[in-house]
Amino acid sequence: EVTPEFTQNLPKAELHVHIEGTLEPELKLKLAKRNHVDIGQESIEDVRATYQYDDLASFLAVYYPAMNVLQHEQDFYDLAMDYLQRAAKNNVRHVEIFFDPQAHTSRGIAFETVINGLYRATVDARALNVDAQLIMCFLRDFSRDSARETLEEALNYKDKFIGVGLDSDEHNNPPMKFFHQFAKASAEGLHLTAHADIDQKDSIEHIRELLEVIGVERVDHGTNIVEDPDLVEFAAKNKIGFTSCPLSNSFVSPFMKGDEILELLSKDVLVSIHSDDPAYFGGYIGDNYYAFADKYNLTKEQVVTLAKNSFEASWISREQKDLYL
Ligand code: HPA
Ligand code: ZN
């Protein structure tokens, strides 16, 4: 029987976690005080009372304003270190962490402040036995020019992150809007992934663009690919990873998209379980595994396959993967 202890202790790779989505109410209040930022909330209950959302847009409307408390390099360090301690408790052995520089540069925080704070935490995480890397995401509701400028600046810190991703509001913001930035990032040796959010109207076309034109190695969410058997076959053959997040899925779908995850598993697609924005959606990676396993009565073998998939879909070397598997 799969227990919460089993899912927590299983060695895992976390491939879909937004560092800004790990901002717990406690740290938010502490940083607001430290930086004298008036957030209009004074208690944990006040903060939690703002957590009302039932789709991507209503979530993002709560998510971005919370970031105002992040001002200094130390704040980004503290945010990431808090998360990495929770990751260690969940036996996350390897993590590829998303960050959204434009959510900070657009409010006057230097790129350097953001990446240096986060990166320093990833170095210190080695003491926790967590191998941590960073993935820089473009905000898809920002302009192409903003993405180009962000990548140009990021390339000055190329040794501090391993790939690029794409997140934020997908509506009317298809992946092809960022074709050139993905091509440039790839030419620079960076890995590629992108969100295809499951509640978005053109999502299947966006997945097609990602796989057939842009050439991403992973799709974040995207389990609705099951609608298109040819694309599923392509994904299986090319070992494309799908990073699904049951607890955030449950905000847009009553069954946390478990039927899609199981269908992909049965077709040998590299689907795996992650936590998205754990401070906002009710749990870290062990909780996500457990919620899914419990609702669908998964066997231990199925849960272990999901964890193996997480290492397979990660961007560590073959030798390192074989050590974990
Ligand atoms: N989708 C899009 N943007 C996001 C998400 C997500 O799941 N989490 C944080 N930003
Ligand atoms: Zn996400």
Automatic annotation (TrEMBL):
Q: What cellular component GO annotations does this protein have?
A: cytosol
- Residues carrying the site annotation Important for catalytic activity: 221
Q: Which GO terms describe its biological process?
A: adenine catabolic process; hypoxanthine salvage; nucleotide metabolic process
Mind listing the UniProt keywords for this protein, alphabetically? Hydrolase, Metal-binding, Nucleotide metabolism, Zinc
Record's cofactor remark: Binds 1 zinc ion per subunit.
Q: Which reaction equation describes what this protein catalyses?
A: adenine + H2O + H(+) = hypoxanthine + NH4(+)
EC number(s)? 3.5.4.2
What's the top EC group for this one?
hydrolase
Query: Which Gene Ontology MF annotations are present?
Result: adenine deaminase activity; zinc ion binding
What are the names of the required cofactors?
A: Zn(2+)
Instruction: Give the binding site residues for Zn(2+).
Output: 16, 18, 195, 276
Protein family per UniProt: Belongs to the metallo-dependent hydrolases superfamily. Adenosine and AMP deaminases family. Adenine deaminase type 2 subfamily.
Q: Which NCBIfam families match?
A: aden_deam (TIGR01430)
Q: Which HAMAP family does this one have?
A: Adenine_deaminase
What name has this protein been given in UniProt? Adenine deaminase
- Natural source organism: Ligilactobacillus saerimneri 30a
Q: What is the lineage of its organism?
A: Bacteria, Bacillati, Bacillota, Bacilli, Lactobacillales
